[in-house]
Design brief:
Layout (H helix, E strand, L loop, with lengths): L6 E9 L9 E2 L4 E7 L8 E2 L18 E4 L2 E2 L2 E4 L3 E5 L8 E8 L7 E2 L3 E5 L5 E2 L14 E3 L5 E2 L18 E7 L4 E2 L13 E2 L3 E5 L2 E2 L5 E6 L7 E6 L7 E9 L2 E2 L5 E4 L5
């Protein structure tokens, strides 16, 4: 019996943080999620393990599954029958790129999905979240830059000891889609050092643009391909509250819903 061909859902190519509404564009180096069926990865999502690496890099053939973006094989971070997570290979910064999923990749029985066209951009910034809510108002995945302690509302994970951010604190927020950095790293490589983005960067916290001096770093997270981070020094006058957090890279803004909880008076 012939295996069914893989199929990508309508609107099934999204930024891996799964914001609502989703980021439905791709940029070089970002992490994307592809949803559909018959991908051949099994009912349970299988994440990339050390034994899957090829010459120390994320593989472009993961358990017989490949993904082509603009005709280029993408490094894969994990897959199931209905989802594949990839790092976007080197693509253009405008127009459309085709995406397709291949099963039994590289064999005589290889099958390919029909290609879908997705917008290409200079960047596709998107924060990762501690919790995802249906309304898209999500607490960003943030940590104290000095201690690595997580930062979020104290009642988000009761009993965990997590506390909110506070004014005058150095904060790291994790994201993807920041695009080209200097030095640059080939998608699939594990960055061995910090590397800042090459495009212009603006950050808005609570609707107010932060001074450039308070934006300490925006670039790759070492040893984590496709993962980026934003390091901030919260200004002395940062107010308490669930403050919206937006980063703009090369003129492209992250989704508007994410927030960072600040409670300076409680610590």
């Amino acid at each position: 019996m012939t295996s069914p061909s893989p199929q990508i859902d309508d609107g099934g190519v999204k930024g891996a943080a799964l914001s609502i509404p989703p980021v439905q564009a791709l940029s070089t180096g970002g992490i994307g999620s592809i949803f559909g069926k018959n991908f051949g990865g099994g009912a349970t999502f299988q994440s990339l393990a050390a034994g899957d690496l090829v010459n120390g890099k994320a593989p472009t053939n993961f358990h017989g599954i490949c993904v082509e973006i603009a005709g280029i094989r993408a490094p894969i971070f994990g897959a199931s029958d209905t989802q594949v997570n990839v790092q976007v290979p080197l693509i253009g910064t405008s127009g459309k790129v085709s995406v397709r999923v291949l099963t039994s990749c590289g064999t005589a029985t290889q099958l390919a999905s029909s290609p879908v066209n997705v917008a290409a951009q200079v960047s596709t910034p998107e924060f990762f979240y501690f919790v995802q809510n249906a309304n898209g108002k999500n607490p960003v995945a943030a940590a104290d830059s000095l201690t690595s302690a997580y930062l979020a509302a104290a009642d988000l994970f009761p009993g965990s000891g997590i506390v909110p951010a506070r004014a005058k604190q150095y904060v790291t927020v994790y994201a993807t889609g920041f695009a080209t950095t200097s030095p640059s790293f080939t998608p699939g490589d594990f960055p061995d050092q910090l590397a800042g983005v090459t495009a212009s960067v603006r950050v808005l916290l609570g609707g107010r643009e932060l001074p450039a001096a308070n934006v300490i770093y925006a670039g790759v997270t070492p040893f984590s391909p496709g993962l980026y981070q934003l390091n901030l020094l919260l200004p002395d006058d940062t107010p308490d509250g669930d403050l919206s957090l937006v980063i703009e890279i090369g003129g492209v803004q992250s989704p508007a819903g994410p927030y960072l909880t600040v409670r300076s008076g409680l610590q």
